[in-house]
Amino acid sequence: MYRLVNQFADGGDFMWVILFVAMLSLTFILERTYFVVFKSSINTKTFIAELEKLIQNRNIERAIALCNTTNAALAQVLREILKYHSGSGRDMQVAADAKTLEVIPKLEKRTSYLDMLAQIATLLGLLGTISGLMTAFDAVAVANPEDSARLLSEGISIAMLTTMFGLTVAVPTLAAAAWLKDKTRKIVNDIDEYSVKITNLITQMKG
């Protein structure tokens, strides 16, 4: 731990900027994880099985009430379909499409920031390294010849710390972004699949 603190201090001012990027990334990751994974997701199989059973029993009001028990994106879209159950299949699909256009931006919101922050962390690390190398070369230029090799190696070692720290921030940030995008994609796919299936089921029940 003491070594890490010393390395952070040796890295210079760029380490603090990268640390700020790391904290910002962590904030977005936690917020997006809560919204996408915990608030907008649902046990799809269990929910759909119960919903289909209610629809087959022609208990639309209870089906709507079931959708109201959760804030999951899929439930919000299916609730709109159920509200238009007395209309045509076209009416239900239009309602589903309109709600989908509303919920998807909320799912994808701020996730793209993580890719940007990962790139910023990497570039800041490289910038810090370049700055550190310039400082090291300046020190070598005015040093005694016998000390030049030692000063240069020490300067390069310190300069590389910012690149290491930048990559340490960037890699998990990119991994989190990919994971969140995968979770979002699954929710969107479920919406596309089950909005069609529920619309068809209601249409069949009416026939």
Describe the secondary-structure layout.
Blueprint (H helix, E strand, L loop, with lengths): L1 H9 L2 H27 L4 H13 L3 H8 L5 H11 L5 H20 L2 H31 L3 H62 L1
Helix pairs in contact: 2-7, 2-8, 3-4, 3-8, 4-5, 5-6, 5-8, 6-8, 7-8
Written account of the structure:
With 207 residues, the protein is mainly alpha-helical. It has one domain. It has eight helices and no strands. It has helices spanning 2-10, 13-39, 44-56, 60-67, 73-83, 89-108, 111-141, 145-206. Helix 3 runs antiparallel to helix 4 (60-67) and helix 7 packs antiparallel against helix 8. The longest helix is centred in the last third of the chain and has 62 residues, at 145-206. The N and C termini lie far apart (70 Å).
Keywords:
single chain, 207 residues, mainly alpha, 8 helices
Mean pLDDT: 89
Low-confidence stretches: none
The string of secondary-structure elements, in order, is HHHHHHHH
- Provide the domain count: 1
Radius of gyration, rounded? 27 Å
Instruction: Give the number of DSSP strands.
Output: 0
**Sheet with most strands:** none
What is the helix tally?
8
What spatial form do the alpha-carbon principal axes imply?
A: rod-shaped
Share of residues in strands = under 5%
Fraction of helical residues = over 70%
Query: What is the distance, rounded to the nearest whole angstrom, between the alpha carbons of the first and last residues?
Result: 70 Å
Instruction: Report the structural category.
Output: mainly alpha
Could you give a short description of this structure?
This protein has 207 residues and is mostly helical. It is built from 8 helices and no strands.
